[in-house]
From TrEMBL:
<dbReference type="GO" id="GO:0050839">
    <property type="term" value="F:cell adhesion molecule binding"/>
</dbReference>
<dbReference type="Pfam" id="PF02469">
    <property type="entry name" value="Fasciclin"/>
</dbReference>
<feature type="compositionally biased region" description="Low complexity">
    <location>
        <begin position="34"/>
        <end position="43"/>
    </location>
</feature>
<dbReference type="GO" id="GO:0005615">
    <property type="term" value="C:extracellular space"/>
</dbReference>
<dbReference type="InterPro" id="IPR000782">
    <property type="entry name" value="FAS1_domain"/>
</dbReference>
<protein>
    <submittedName>
        <fullName>Putative surface protein with fasciclin (FAS1) repeats</fullName>
    </submittedName>
</protein>
<feature type="signal peptide">
    <location>
        <begin position="1"/>
        <end position="22"/>
    </location>
</feature>
<dbReference type="InterPro" id="IPR036378">
    <property type="entry name" value="FAS1_dom_sf"/>
</dbReference>
<keyword id="KW-0732">Signal</keyword>
<feature type="domain" description="FAS1">
    <location>
        <begin position="82"/>
        <end position="212"/>
    </location>
</feature>
<dbReference type="GO" id="GO:0030198">
    <property type="term" value="P:extracellular matrix organization"/>
</dbReference>
<feature type="compositionally biased region" description="Acidic residues">
    <location>
        <begin position="44"/>
        <end position="53"/>
    </location>
</feature>
<dbReference type="InterPro" id="IPR050904">
    <property type="entry name" value="Adhesion/Biosynth-related"/>
</dbReference>
<dbReference type="GO" id="GO:0007155">
    <property type="term" value="P:cell adhesion"/>
</dbReference>
<dbReference type="GO" id="GO:0031012">
    <property type="term" value="C:extracellular matrix"/>
</dbReference>
<feature type="region of interest" description="Disordered">
    <location>
        <begin position="26"/>
        <end position="85"/>
    </location>
</feature>
Amino acid sequence: MIRKSTLTVTAAAAALAFGLTACGDMSEEDPEAASENTSAEETAGAEDTESEGMTETAGENFGPGCAAVPEDGEGSFEGMADDPVATAASNNPALSTLVTAVGEADLVDTLNSAEDITVFAPADDAFAKIPEEDLNALLADQEQLTEVLTYHVVEGRQAPADLEDGTFTSLQGGEVTTEGSGEEFTVNGDSAVVCGNVQTANATVYIVDTVLMPE
């Protein structure tokens, strides 16, 4: 009986020792595995957050005038982002008069080759505010037309936040001022942004409802 009890206790002790060893191995390995899994999940989560942030920043177009931009094709927001600014504008039906003016002033190559600029682009309705006789005279005067159009271009890709209280030097040489917040901005006090933060390959575009005139 004593011998049998001794064997039983020995077998139980061996089983307990094996169990503890196995648990010890698991406790040594699991924290590392759990850490790796947690790290992988955190990395994936950070990548997802970063991707969402980039998407939100790139796609924040705003303003009632954006409804006139085609939903697809080369003239859409996505299509315009692939082309330099003069080419992108030529594909947008809301900017047809501006495109004509840029061609008359021979500024297509100048605008397309510029790097990182912001363009306050007058919509067709903006040009319609100018009496027809005066507009035709402007389009026929290349020097004056160039002055007016280059006044709508400033250096750097200006984000909406930069327009809250901004003063910029235009390509023409004169100053352009902006003010506002959220999704409501004006340029030089009376030209409203009707579609903002439109991206092209080399420019950020704000479509405005009034043609800007340099002093």
